[in-house]
Design a protein that fits this description.
- The protein has 455 residues and is α/β, with parallel strands linked by helices.
- Helices cover 36% and strands 16% of the residues.
- The protein is built from 14 helices and 18 strands.
- A seven-stranded mixed β-sheet has the order 5-11-10-9-8-6-7, sandwiched between helices. It has a four-stranded antiparallel β-sheet with strand order 14-15-18-17, with helices on one face.
- The structure holds pyridoxal-5'-phosphate (PLP).
């Protein structure tokens, strides 16, 4: 593979704090899909999209795995490291003060992005870490840690944890562990032949034994959008807490987590134009105050003796060790970028691209698309099987044409097993994806079976 990247879109390095070209867009005034020229304008902010792969212009259709980053995000992190880098919440010197201010400002920015208060946002290292934080906090509560207020999270034999058959392993294995460590039972909402489920399926599994319901907002395989409001109602009626895996929704659609009514939610910086190494856990204040921490050490305590320690209030009690400060600054800049373009417009753009992909794939013989059928909402990603050709071969053929997609089980083996598949090919769109890229992708998929001698 020949990969050439890094050419700056504008042909020059943008100055620090200089407004990016996307600021020229007439944003925030419409919920219409982005126009072709607006997408071209956006793309100029993304150096990674200017590269070529195998002699072809890169068509990056793997944002569901990780998104590319605009210059403003790259510059914000660099600017922080050049001018304000210090450990936060500790030093008495000026830089430490500036770094702490930047770190907490970033928390407020991300909080307002999801309709939350700053104290309801915990920085983690990624969504997987956020989900583990909740599950292992509950393990600790079940072992008696956290005192009387933590008892609401204590699980024991007879209690049930409910997930769906479509979860990413990050929102499955921590709950398997919680069950194994507490004696609780893990149950799941089954999916149908399309890999989706209805609220009525959830109603059959959520009972008064249920203590936790953990579901993905948007499936990373099918793009299915979960009936969150109905599930929250069922769970709360049963006295259970709802944990939302918002990895594939927070980057792509406007979220108001308190309005959705979920108790906890997790997402990652790197899927929303931000850096790796930072994730977000949202938790309702009352719950974060009651949940025992999972990691302990520096930065999360008020007093320590040789016998024990008192912990700081949330969110600091969950942020043990030296914090991901430059990453927090950068994720906040990513939020500003997304908000400037407009989440409603991004969602509409991706929906239009997904429709184009689905319509195109439907005309290609031997393609089986998994996920919701016509008329059922789905996000801007499409996974499919090509008859007679392994997904890895599909991916390699597309790569030879400069088209980047994800292949494999997408960390959702039980779902693939249910669908009777071991692997699929997934194309996922984002705000910078063009209709021309989708058409290139469709053309290449149309050639795959012939290339591998299947027709
Ligand atoms: C639905 C979903 N949940 C969880 C994750 C895990 O995210 P991370 O690897 O950033 O922790 C992903 C990433 O692919 C995902 O798509």
């Amino acid at each position: 593979m020949v990969l050439v990247t890094g050419r700056r879109a504008s042909g020059r390095r943008r100055g620090r704090n200089e407004r990016q070209s996307v600021s020229q867009l007439a944003v925030g005034v419409t919920t219409a899909p982005l126009t072709d020229s607006e997408v071209e304008e956006i793309r100029r902010d993304f150096p990674a999209l200017q590269g070529t792969v195998n002699g072809e212009a890169l068509a990056y259709l793997d944002s569901g795995a990780t998104a590319q980053r605009p210059l403003s995000v790259l510059d914000a992190e660099r600017d922080f490291l050049e001018h304000r880098n210090a450990a936060v919440h500790r030093g008495a010197h000026t830089l430490a003060g500036l770094a702490t201010e930047a770190y907490e400002d970033a928390r407020a920015t991300v909080a307002s992005f999801v309709g939350a208060q700053p104290d309801e946002i915990v920085w983690t290292s990624n969504a997987t870490d956020s989900l583990n934080l909740v599950a292992y906090g509950m393990v600790n509560a079940s072992r008696g840690r956290g005192g009387a207020t933590a008892r609401r999270f204590a699980l024991t034999e007879g209690d049930e944890i409910v997930v769906t058959e479509a979860e990413h392993h990050a929102n499955l294995i921590p709950w398997q562990e919680l069950a194994a460590l507490t004696g609780a039972t893990l149950r799941y909402i089954p999916v149908d032949d399309d890999g989706i489920y209805q609220a009525t399926d959830a109603a059959a599994v959520i009972t008064d034994k249920t203590r936790v319901v953990a579901i993905a907002h948007v499936s990373n395989v099918t793009g299915f959008v979960a009936p969150v409001a109905e599930i929250v109602a069922l769970a709360h009626q049963a006295g259970a807490v709802v944990v939302l895996d918002a990895c594939q929704s927070a980057p792509h659609r406007r979220l108001d987590l308190p309005a959705l009514g979920v108790d906890f939610a997790a997402f990652s910086g790197h899927k929303m134009l931000g850096p790796t190494g930072i994730g977000v856990l949202y938790g309702r204040t009352e719950l974060l105050e009651a949940l025992p921490p999972f990691r302990t050490g520096g930065s999360m305590i008020s007093t320590v003796t040789m016998e024990g320690a008192d912990y700081l209030p949330a969110p600091q009690r969950f942020e043990a060790g030296t914090q991901p400060v430059s990453q927090a600054v950068a994720i906040a800049e990513a939020v500003r970028y997304l908000e400037h373009v407009g989440l409603d417009r991004i969602e509409a753009h991706e929906e239009a691209l997904a429709e184009r992909m689905l319509a195109g794939l439907a005309t290609i013989p031997g393609i089986r698309v998994v996920g919701p059928g016509a008329g059922i909402p789905r996000a801007g990603l499409v996974s499919f099987d090509v008859a007679g050709v392994h997904a890895h071969d599909v991916g390699q053929y597309l790569d030879s044409k400069g088209i980047a997609v994800r292949v494999g089980h997408h960390c959702a083996q039980p779902l693939h097993r249910r669908l009777g598949l071991t692997a699929t090919t997934r194309a996922s769109a984002y705000l910078y994806t063009t209709t021309a890229e989708v058409d290139r992708f469709l053309e290449a998929v149309g050639e795959v079976r012939g290339y591998f001698g299947e027709v």
